[in-house]
Amino acid sequence: MKTTLSKIGILILMLSIGSAACKKDKKDDTKISFKYNQKEAEIGTALGMQYGESPVTGVFGIEMEFLEKTLTVHYTNNYPDSLSGKGDALAVTFLTDKVNEITPGVYNYLPLTQALTAYSIYGDGESFLMINLDSSSQVDPTEVDVTGGKVTVGKSGNVYEFTFDLTTSVNTTITGYYKGQPTIYNQKKKKAGMHQNWFPQVNGNR
Fold first, then answer.
1. Beta bridge partner(s), residue 83
2. Of 38, 48, 149, 182, which has the maximum CB count within 10 A?
3. Mean pLDDT over all residues of the chain?
């Protein structure tokens, strides 16, 4: 009887370990992408731009930019200044309590009628999706503003995790996931003439 119970205990333990491993593998295998309508755009590059302190003391803005892998970032003096290729790009401006990093937590969309607070997503045209951004075309990409939803942020060392669940100005949704080590740049160090919102510079309306 003791042997049988031991075997059962070992079997349960093995199943538990196997189940935990499967769950871990499933999380690790989550696709790094964002989805809009019927398209899933695999994220190739993610980076951030510090906006500095807002008019509210202790509340800072950081715009994170998630670029489809078909878009290539070009740098000047280790600072992003242009793109080539064609694809979609998601920009989300986080209001956080630190100037150079996004504190882990749940960031809810902040209606324009409310005062600026940390752990919020800033709208007013500062969080948006650009569709069919084409560096070789004079045609402006389609821009869809984020108008609701949330982003859950996790952080371990320099590794961030972003889980998107957003709504847009045209009553659609943007969902997705990113895990990686994006560089967050200080926009005050940009070269003269560079755009603060650098990647939409191909759009003449920005």
1. 73
2. 48
3. 82
